């Protein structure tokens, strides 16, 4: 559905997207996971023909993003990071405008608009001006708008950025429904780990413009080699001792805790406690966040809460 | 057949973009009130004040009536060029991005937006014309046709200019500069407030270069039967300027960055 080959975007000396090669399959939900400035949005903008690549190529739905940009635009839907509807118009009017811009035939417009409104749960607010909508409703309207012309591919750029936890979960519900009912290929970018984990069939971790890991969420987590146990102990030389146990793969010291990698924490913990005396013990299965830290060496920082976020915070 | 479908498709998209401008305008009544009030203030305060001080400006015509065509032109200059700031708003709220990512040609985006701006200028002009009739401008069917044609040309050309300039700017503060360096010179040099005959040489050259000069002169011909050039000459120059500014607008929209 999407083929990306050696795609590069440079801004002066800064390489935002660095030799990206990636295939995205039909009807999958693909997540681009990365911190801010990793190149996610730049990649989406290039695929949506809003930005010209510096070099490399990509096809979307079989059309080249540079030489056949009009055909690419007609076959994709996109939800931008920031809501882009006209808030002086009603939800219905915004959809009407875009159904005309996307050449939805006149006789089909009304029905299609009603369908997408229903899909995102905005039917009873359709005649209200968008400026009266909450942040979550605005995002859902954008999704409805992106679906009007039945695109083959849908881009969702940080669909839940700036939403409160409850709106975020509602949004996830609608994205899942979209996958079931509309049969589109979805590419979403996010820096929320749970979001990628919850929604995506495959996840590509992007760092400094490069894909550094690519697998299913389960596969990525399995790649870390099992569970993590954290214990606090006063047993002298506990670290050296547990390192010799054959079910312990790796030992690290962190903030007075011993952090052990094991295959299955539920079995390993009782055995471990026969060897060391623990003041406290806890275990966890790896999250995508652990995968991210492991691969990039950094925690994913939610640093976007700058000017842009504050502008939209009031809508929630 | 293929081409008729495509023409209809373009027109639908232009209509959609125009309709959005029109609806927004109709919902922002304060915009209409504010932008109509200023010309009325000029007409009555400057018209009566300066008219009383120097009644001989335009022989045979009362000063207030003499500047009336100039005030109509002023309203068009201000509202048309100012409309360019709305492209910056569209960019700020990412609406522009959502239009640019749709399968719509930049030319259609430009035409739709320009028609939207023209509509707002025309509504204001219509209000002023009604006031003109009330204060004694002798409209005839022929003069009304000439007036409307002149207003259409001026507003198309100047809305194009405003949008073209707006397409290069990213901040509304930057657009304020346009007001000082474009709007006021266009207005003051147009002869809206004084006759063009007997000007000092340098001022004569500047007024001759101002497209609005020909609009004011054509309006004055049509409404009062006085003017410096022939109305045919005014019309021809206006058509030329309008075509050039329209081309500048389309060129600017084509090279405008989407993100």
Rounded radius of gyration of chain B (Å):
19 Å
Largest interface, C-beta closer than 8 angstroms, per-chain residues: A-B, 29 and 25 residues
Structural class of chain B: mainly alpha
Structural class of chain A: alpha/beta
Q: Compute the number of strand runs of chain B.
A: 0
Main sheet of chain B, how many strands, which sense, barrel?
Answer: none
Please provide the count of β strands of chain A: 14
Helix content of chain A: 25-40%
Overall spatial form of chain A: elongated
Principal-axis shape of chain B = elongated
Report the radius of gyration of chain A as a whole number of Å. 23 Å
Q: What is the typical, i.e. mean, pLDDT of chain B?
A: 91
* Oligomeric description of these chains: heterodimer
Order of helical and strand elements of chain A: EEEHEEHEHHHEHEHEEHEHEEHEHH
Low-confidence stretches of chain A: 302-316
User: Which residue ranges of chain B are poorly predicted, with pLDDT under 50 across at least 5 consecutive positions?
Assistant: none
Straight-line distance between termini of chain A: 35 Å
Q: Provide the β-strand percentage band of chain A.
A: 25-35%
Average pLDDT reading of chain A: 87
Describe the structure.
The complex is a heterodimer of chains A (about 325) and B (about 260). Chain A is α/β, with parallel strands linked by helices. In chain A, about 35% of the residues lie in helices and about 30% in strands. In chain A, strands 6-7-8-3-9-10 form a 6-stranded mixed β-sheet, with helices on both faces. In chain A, strand 12 and strand 13 form a beta hairpin. The longest helix of chain A is centred in the middle third of the chain and has 18 residues, at about 165-180. Chain B is mainly α and about 260 residues long. Helices cover about 80% and strands about 0% of the residues of chain B. Chain B is built from 11 helices and no strands. Chain B has helices spanning about 1-25, 30-55, 65-80, 85-90, 95-100, 105-135, 140-165, 170-190, 200-210, 210-225, 230-255. In chain B, helix 2 (about 30-55) runs antiparallel to helix 3 and helix 3 runs parallel beside helix 7. The longest helix of chain B is centred in the middle third of the chain and has 30 residues, at about 105-135. The radius of gyration of chain B is 19 Å and the shape is elongated. The mean pLDDT of chain B is about 90. Classes of the chains: A alpha/beta (about 325), B mainly alpha (about 260).
